[in-house]
Amino acid sequence: MSEQTKVLVVDDDEVVRLSYQRSLQAARYNVEAVLSGEDALQALEQKRFDVVLLDLRMPGMDGMSVLQAIKRAWPKSEVVVITGYPTVESAKEAVRLGAYDYLAKPVGPAEVINAACGAITQKKWALRKDLSSPDAGVGATNYWMNMQRRWLGPASPDAGPDATIDPYGESSRLGS
Q1: pTM for this structure?
Q2: Taking the CA atoms of the chain, what radius of gyration do you get in angstroms?
Q3: By residue range, what is the domain housing residue 165?
Q4: Does residue 141 belong to any structural domain of this protein?
Q5: Are 91 and 120 in the same domain?
Q6: Which residues make Cβ contacts (< 8 Å) with residue 47, sequence separation at least 6?
Q7: DSSP string, the chain
Q8: Tally of structural domains, the chain
Q9: How does pLDDT run across 100-155, given as a tens digit for each residue?
């Protein structure tokens, strides 16, 4: 991966923030931590984060309001809600608002890393789907065609629609 994954930890409890931050940094994530919803939105305005680990109960702006604001302004950031006060209702609401996952505290280092990793995988698949969809436009199509040519070489000009591109630059028919 050419760019390190950026994670924002949002929790009013300093011990929790530092624990998540240390765990994720040990797993080679680029991590910043803030203690309020307002600080989280300011941080997101300054830089793009791939994943946000978000507490629900904080002074000031609560986690659900922050989740809504994030998904509205930065829809490609994946959000993992982590709360010490889990309920079925808040889990449903978080997922309805676009959270990738919902975890109940206490959450150990492995669970934090797994949640961030899963959110990144989800983001990559969502981006891949966006780029390969018919609505992605000519720009995305040209991007993927250029990437194929760059890595695999061009298909033969006389290749049919069912031709594949092999690493040696020769086209071949599927099933041959």
Answers
A1: 0.71
A2: 21
A3: 134-173
A4: yes
A5: yes
A6: 6
A7: --SPPEEEEE-S-HHHHHHHHHHHHHTT-EEEEESSHHHHHHHHHHS--SEEEE-S--SSS-HHHHHHHHHHH-TTSEEEEEESS--HHHHHHHHHTT-SEEEESP--HHHHHHHHHHHHHHHHHHHHHHHHSGGGHHHHHHHHHHHHHHHH-PPPTT--TTEEE-TTS-EEETT-
A8: 2
A9: 999 999 999 999 999 999 999 988 876 666 555 554 444 444 434 444 444 444 44
Closest CA to 114 of 30, 19, 27: 27
Residue 165 in tokens? 């591109």
Q: Count how many residues are written for the chain.
A: 176
Residues 78 and 145 occupy one common structural domain: no
Q: Which residues pair with 9 in a beta bridge?
A: 33, 53
**Buried b / exposed e across 55-66, counting CB within 10 Å, b at 16+?**
bbebeebebbeb
Q: 29 and 94: one domain?
A: yes
Residues 78 and 90 in one domain: yes
Residue with tokens 């698949």: 125
| CATH number for position 84 | 3.40.50.2300
Token digits of residue 88: 């079925």
**Does one domain contain both 118 and 152?**
no
